[in-house]
Amino acid sequence: MKLSQIKSGDQLSTRSILTWRVIQTLVWLIGAFILYSLIFKPTLGIHLFWNILIPVAPLLFVVSVGVWRNVCPMASTALFFRHIGLSKRKKLTIPQSGKLKLIAIIALFIIIPLRHAIFNLSGQATAILIIALGVVAITVSFFNEWKSAWCSGLCPVHPVENLYGLRNKIKLPNAHCNQCHKCVTPCPDSTPKNNPLSTTKTAYHRITGILTVGAFPGFVWGWFQVPDYNGITSLSELISIYQPPFIGMLVSSFIFLVLKKVLNKKTITELFAIAAVSFYYWFRIPALFGFGIYPENGMLIDLTKTIPEWTIQVIVRVLVLFFFIWLYVSKQNNNSWAIRPRYADIEK
Q: Does some domain include residue 38?
């Protein structure tokens, strides 16, 4: 019996594929321009990447993470060889998949604090980071099937997508996978109600879930307690950029483990997702407009002489209320990030 006869999903039409390819190409070109700017016009590049793209991403993940999964330029780059049929298409085992997810969240915790000393101030360093991640993404995707090794594995952004993408309201086709080859189980794109705590197949998955849900809110809060440095000149400076976020991780992990005894997985994931994304915008939006804890750190434009500070605080509070309503109060549906395409014709 063929698997496609058991269960099948929606298939992209030729017109829909063409539309998504055009969008993916345009977004890829924007990404290429940002990379070019980071190298040759670093001030512009830093603003475009760290002060525009990255601040928008968490909100997009909350509202419709499937949009980003479809158009992410790193994903388009990583999956290029698979699209043209040159990938080795190796299937990952469940333990291997769990290891990659754990490496991804650890990489996120290592890379992000370095923004304060290196990446926030150096366009070239940020470009090197992006290129290095791109090489890794292309390499692992060349050897492994579809999104299993990078998009749903090693990508440091994937844990954030998984935490914030709890309430997908918009049904989208999967713009990369024209057939489902079950490259990773459960598929984060096509599994309704998927969250970081829902997969407990191995110790790697369980640890990743605890770090993503329990540790991440404290990490975000702690990250904003650190000023930017002009490079790392001593061991004490290196320790100082990691100490607050890591202390925050320990505190929020402890709170998570306590609450885990009295709250179900769904509720605790929602509350910690709200905390993490709210902490981010509570500090990031004021910083973008010159009202941050550390003036000029991460500033896009200085509005301190143009508008009163309370207007920014109102915006922040409205956004936090929105996250609470969207991620906790609103009715949960069974939408996945993307509609699963029909299964490939694999003999059972």
A: yes
